[in-house]
C-alpha cells in the first residue's frame, strides 16, 4: 500500500493504522527524515518526492511498488492549505495550492494507476471544502478540493471498468499541521488554526475511516466518505 503525505497528520495516521491492520506501507512526502523514522516504526519503505514533480513521483512510486512487491491500495493524502480572500492573496499561493492539491493528485494517479489491478483501491483525501464553500477565506483551498472531487469522478470512469475502486474521503476540520506554513502570525490564520484544533477530528479518526473503506469486499466501492466531528456538524 502507498501513502502520500505520510510525513505528518492524516497520511502518517493512515500509514500507522494500515500497518496495524497488516499492510506493508510505502511512504511518500518531501521530508525524508520523517518518512525514514515512520518506515522504521511500522516496518515500511520510504521514498522522498515532491508531488508537484510528476517525474519524481513516478520514480518514487515505481521504486516503492518494487520494494512492496506491487500495490493493492493508494491513499493520496499530500496536500496544503491557504487561508485568505482572493482579493488579498498573493497569486503565488494560489498556484502552490493548486499544484499540490490538484497537480500532485493527478501526478500520483498517473504514477500509481498502472500498478493497480482489479479489487485494489485509490483513495483521495479531499475535504468537506470540496463539497461546499465554507468561508470566503477558504475559497482557493475549496476550489482545489472541488477539483480533487472532479479528478476522482474522472478516475472512477477511467479505471472503474477494470475493477479498481476510487474513493473520495472528505473530512471536516482535523487537528494537524496543515496550516503551519501559512503565514503563522497572521490573526485570521491563527484563529482558523485554533478552530481546526478545537473542533477537529483527530488524524486517527480519518485513518479509521480509510482502513474501513479498504477492508470492504472488492465488489463494494465507497464513492464518498464525508466525516466531521460532532462539534462541527452544524457549522
Ligand atoms: N487538517 C484538516 O483540517 C483537513 C481537513 C480536510 C482535508 N484535509 C486534507 O488532508 C490531507 C492531509 O493534510 P493534513 O491535515 O494531514 O496536514 P499535514 O499534517 O500538514 O500533512 C500534509 C502532508 O502533505 C505533504 N505534502 C505537502 N506538500 C507536499 C508536496 N509538494 N509534495 C509531497 N508531499 C507534500 C506533507 O509532507 P512534506 O511537507 O514532508 O512534503 C505532509 O505529509 C490534505 O490533502 C488536506 O487538504 C485536511
CATH architecture: 3-Layer(aba) Sandwich
* Low-pLDDT segments, ≥5 res: none
Any ligands, ions or cofactors bound here, and which?
NADP nicotinamide-adenine-dinucleotide phosphate
The number of distinct helices, counting runs of at least 4 residues, comes to 7
Order of helices and strands: EHEHEHEHEHEHHE
- Would you report the number of β strands? 7
- The chain-level structural class is alpha/beta
Kindly estimate the percentage of residues that lie in beta strands according to DSSP: 5-15%
Measured distance between first and last alpha carbons: 34 Å
Order of strands, widest sheet = 3-2-1-4-5-6-7
Sketch the major β-sheet: 7 strands, parallel
Mean pLDDT: 96
Supply the CATH class.
Alpha Beta
Shape verdict: globular
Assign the CATH topology.
Rossmann fold
Q: Mind telling me the CATH superfamily name?
A: NAD(P)-binding Rossmann-like Domain
Question: How many structural domains does the protein architecture include?
Answer: 1
Architecture overview:
The chain has 235 residues and is of the alpha/beta class. Helices cover 46% and strands 13% of the residues. It has 7 helices and 7 strands, in the order βαβαβαβαβαβααβ. Strands 3-2-1-4-5-6-7 form a 7-stranded parallel sheet, sandwiched between helices. β5, α5 and β6 form a beta-alpha-beta unit. The termini are far apart. The mean pLDDT is 96. NADP nicotinamide-adenine-dinucleotide phosphate (NAP) binds next to α1 and α4.
